Amino acid sequence: MDKRNMIIKSVILSGGSGTRLWPASRESYPKQLLPLTGERSLLQETAVRLDDFVGAEVDPRPLIVTNEEYRFIIAEQLRQIGVSSPQIVLEPCGRNTAPALTLAALAAHGEGDPVLLVMPADHVIADPGAFQRAIAEGAELAAAGALVTFGIVPDRAETGYGYIRGGAILAEGSQGRVLAEFVEKPDRDTAQRYLESGEYFWNSGIFMMKASVWLRAIERFNPAMASACTTAYAGCTPDADFIRLAQGAFERCPSDSIDYAVMERLADAPELGQGVVVPMAAGWSDVGAWDALWAVSDKDSDGNAARGEVMFEGCRNTLVHSASRLVAAIGCEDMIVVETPDAVMVAHKDHTQDVKKVVARLKAEGRSLTQSHRKVYRPWGWYDSIDEGERFQVKRIVVNPGAKLSLQMHHHRAEHWIVVKGTAEVTNGERSFLLGENESTYIPLGHTHRLANPGKVPLEIIEVQSGSYLGEDDIVRFEDTYGRGCA
Predict the structure, then answer these.
(1) Domain named Mannose-6-phosphate isomerase type II C-terminal: which ranges (predicted)?
(2) Which pLDDT score is estimated for 1?
C-alpha cells in the first residue's frame, strides 16, 4: 500500500484508576495523569509517541476515550504539550476496552477510515525508536485489512501478564506472525516454558486496525455492543470540546475487552480479517505496581531511583518518590518509599502488589485518601487544602489565565480571599471589582460571588473559609462556564 495514502490516528484509552500506585495515584487523579518517569505525564508521553513518525501520515488530533471526571485535566494536559483540537469521547460509565474502541472507530470512520493505533494511556515505552519501527510494520498489515496486536518480547518468566502465542511468520523479511492464541497469566513453570519456546509474547494491550475493520468485527461477534455504541454515539449532545454520548444507550452496552470480544475469535471468521501479532522490544512496561516503576526508572550506581527531593545514604535497589518534601532514606535495600502531602507508603519491593489491600481497607473505612489528593484539579485551575480545623479551612487557589469559577453561593460558610499573585476579578453580591496583589475581600455567608482571572499570568489567592460546614458539596451554582450543574 502507498504509505502516502495511509493515515494513522492515535486512540488513547484513559479510564483506569491505577490504585496499585497509591498514594501517588488516586481515583480522581490516576497514574496516567502523573509524571512518573519524566517531566510529562504518562498520558502526555502516549500522545506524543508518534511524533516524527515517518512510516505514514499521522492525524495530529488524537482521540481519547475517558470519563467525565478526567475530561478537563486531560484537555489541559494535552494543551500543555501543544496538542490542539483533540477529540475527547466521554463515557457515562465504564464498559471495558471493546466498547471504548467501538466508540473511537465510530468517531474516526467518517474521516476517511484511518488506521487506528489503540494505546492505553498509562504505559511506559523506554525505546521510542523501536516502538515506531514495530508500529510501521503493524500499520502496513492493518491497512491491508489485518487486526494487529503487539506482543512484547519477554525478557523474563513473568507471571503477572497474559501472553500471546505467535504462529507462522507471515512472509519472508516480516516480523509479523499469525495470531495463534491468547493465554491467561501462567504459573512460574509455565511462564518459564513460554520464555524458552520463543513463541510467546506478553500481551501489551496495544492494537492496530482500520476503523471499518473493527466495526465489522464487533457487529459480527457482539451485535448488542455494536448497537448500543452506535445508538449512544448517534445521540451525542453538541459540545465544542467533548463528545458526550447518550447516557441511557451506553449504560445498556455489554462490557468486554478487545481481546475477548474480537481478537480471540478471529479464527472463527477469517473473512473479517487476519489476526496478527507483531513482536515489540521497546522497553515496554504497564507500570502496574511500584516495583515495575523502579524497574523502568533511571538509577544510580547502587540501583537506587528517585523522584523529587531525595537523599540516599547506604541504600541499594530502592525507589523513593517524593512529592512535597525532602525524604532521606538510610540503609534501605529493595524498598519502595512514596511520599505525598497527605500520605506516606513504605513497602518491600516483593510486596508492592499488596498496596491494593491497603486501598481496600481505606475504602472500607470511608477514607477519602483513595479518592483524591490534597491538591484537587478543576477546569479553571486547582486548589490545595493547606490547613483545616474545627470551623475553618485554608486553601491555596490558582486560577488559570482567562478562567473563572462558577457564579455561586454557600449556605454554611463565609470566605476571605487574599490575592498573592496576579489580578483577581471579583463578583461579591451586587458589586464587581478588581483586586491586586496583597489586597483582599470578604464574602459573607449567603452572598452570590465569583472569582475570575482576567490577566495573562496565573492568579494565586489564599482562601480562608469559616463556618459550620465546609464540605465541597455546599455549593449552589447559578452560572458555570464549564457546564457543571446549576440551580
Answers:
(1) 366-480
(2) 47
